[in-house]
Amino acid sequence: MEAVLDRVIANLSGASPVQRGGLPRNLIIMSHDFNPSVLASMDLESVKGLALEAGGRTSHTAILARSLGIPAVMEMTGFLAEVATGDPVLLDGDRGQLVLNPTSERLDSARIRLEECSLMAEPPAATAVPARTRDGVAVTLKANTELPMEVRMARRCAAEGIGLFRSELLFLRCPGRFPTMASQLETYSMLAREMHPYPVAIRTLDLGGDSNDLTTGVSNRQNPVMGLRGIRWSLVRQDLFATQIEAILRAGASGKVELVLPMIASVEEVREAKAVIARISEALAAAGDLPGIPVAIGAMIEVPAAVLALDGLAREVDFLCVGTNDLTQYLLAVDRGNPSVSHLFKPLHPAMLQSLQRIAAVAKECGKPVRICGEMCANPFFAVLLLGMGFTELSMNSTSIPTVRKIIKEISLASAADISAQALRFQTAGETAGFLLSEVGRLVTMDLAPYVREVVGAAASDRATPALEPPWTAAQESCSHRSARRS
Ligand code: PEP
Ligand code: MG
Predict the structure, then answer these.
(1) Catalytic residue positions, numbered
(2) Ligand 1 atom, smallest distance to 166 CA
(3) What pLDDT, in 10s, does the model give residues 128-180?
(4) What is the pLDDT of residue 457?
(5) pTM assigned to the model
(6) Cα(162)–Cα(146) distance, rounded to whole angstroms?
(7) What residues have CB less than 8 Å from 375, skipping those under 6 apart?
(8) pLDDT score for 13
(9) pLDDT score, position 218
(10) Strands annotated E in 282-342
(11) What per-residue confidence (pLDDT) applies to 124?
(12) What stretches in the chain show pLDDT beneath 50?
């Protein structure tokens, strides 16, 4: 009945219909762009890959695909005109390659590589042992999740909690309708129970940017990422915000729950949100419904103003979550979902590194725990850089946790700190990338080749890949990255 209702509402409201089942097996979705809520609603058993002309590494569709373990390639400009439904294609998410109508030789070598990869895949640890550096410093590794079902993968990868639950998909799955307090409570409580004794950080609704305006009813068309989104929208729609807050507070009865406020740019926003939280807490307490353990409140630090005004903000909250995806976007004025500027999206830009260093220093000064929640920390090179700056809590897509745990065990905090201090002296992202590739590569034994491309991409000054040679040689296939070709 609910599915029928969703469908009717979606059709009446003009939302694209969602196909939940009956899909062909071994399906590779090829599209110009693809809404994450549609991906989340599909029969994921059938979806084997995703190739988009739009998007970007940190777009929510890419983040969701990564979390679900669906190979995906983004920014494949212009390939759609070359392909028809039913054509065989070869998609390599690790290398960012898409080959249309591959030859049988290429398919054979891909099959061999796939077998090798599955043989090499390390079984995730059964229990969550805190990762420790060579010099004994504990580093907490948590999972970012978007769908409730991802909690299983988080546990399998030995996440020590959910560092960021993006609650948007709960709302986006039924366009035009908001989930009730009871249905939200069910999800949040399940997460808290499943992750017990570790905490679950539920981020309040962060719609806007690359999500549609059917749900919020707000048109942010002119400039979506700077529009009425995140906490701004919640403070305008305080009725809906209050419903979400009530569900989060009540979920505290099922385990350790934290509440994270997105897109914070000022102390006023935090105070206003805290007033709503206090009002709901008092009402629950008066009714005898407030769980004993208080829910800690955190702020996403992802807007440049929050970095500059961090002293005041840190005093208002219990902990800080650094959203490196949005911080890079806003600091560099580069839309994270726009392929025409994706070459300018550089987490290694000196402004970004200085901001991160400032956040680590202010958090330490104020005695507030700080966690990195953006995609950046899932790459071992960046993880070392962040560790060296003093970030000892990293939250990432679950599947990256075993790799990051491995590199942390291989490196000492002292050497990571040395690398970070030197990295901060460079004037360009390219110099920092070259330095990171050679220094981190020198210190560890693990194979870092699969992560080089992202580091190089985080520094490229134009669309051409810069000639940064890693200190090892990696076999390269002849077909080009990003662009699709017939072979
Ligand atoms: C971020 O901005 O880095 C973040 C963690 O949140 P999101 O990717 O959902 O914007
Ligand atoms: Mg963000």
Answers:
(1) 60, 373
(2) 9
(3) 578 999 999 999 999 999 999 999 999 999 999 999 999 999 988 776 678 99
(4) 81
(5) 0.85
(6) 10
(7) 57, 58, 63, 66, 324, 325, 396, 397
(8) 44
(9) 60
(10) 296-301, 319-322
(11) 56
(12) 1-9, 11-18, 126, 462-487
CA terminus-to-terminus distance, the chain: 47
Judged by DSSP in three states, 485 sits in strand
Residue 475: inside a domain: no
Residue 54's pLDDT is what? 82
Atom number in ligand 1 closest to CA 322 = 3
Report d(CA 215, CA 340) in Å as an integer.
Answer: 27
Stated length of the chain: 487
* Ligand 1 pocket, CB under 6 A: 63, 164, 166, 206, 302, 323-326, 373-374
Neighbours of 152 (CB within 10 A): 11
CA-proximal residue: ligand 1, atom 3 (nearest): 323
CB 173 within 8 A of CB 200: no
Q: Is 472 helix (H, G, I), strand (E, B) or coil?
A: coil
Which pLDDT does position 221 carry in this prediction? 62
Question: Both 116 and 137 in a single domain?
Answer: no
Give the integer Cα–Cα distance in Å for 257 and 201. 6
User: Does one domain contain both 371 and 424?
Assistant: yes
- Which domain CATH number covers 453? 3.20.20.60
49 neighbors 72 (Cβ within 8 angstroms): yes
Q: Is residue 93 domain-shared with residue 137, that is, in the same domain?
A: no
Domain housing 69: 2-122
pLDDT score for 172? 82
Closest-CA residue, ligand 1 atom 4, reads 323
pLDDT of residue 127: 54
Boundary-marking domain end, from 122, 150, 174: 122
- 462 in a domain, yes or no? no
Tokens found for residue 147 = 């769908």
What contacts 61, CB < 8 A, 6 or more positions away? 33, 34, 35, 36, 39, 50, 52, 55, 72, 74, 210
46/140 same-domain check: no
Number of domains in the chain: 2
Task: Indicate which residue's Cα is closest to atom 9 of ligand 1.
Answer: 166
Please state, in angstroms and rounded to a whole number, the distance separating the CA atoms of residues 27 and 46. 6
**Looking at residue 215, what is its pLDDT?**
59
Q: Are strands 72-73 and 89-92 parallel, antiparallel or unpaired?
A: unpaired
On whether both 39 and 187 belong to a single domain, the answer is no
310 and 446: one domain?
yes
Same domain, 279 and 354: yes
- Shared domain for 114 and 93, answered yes or no, is yes
Pairwise CA distance, residues 53 & 472, whole Å = 31
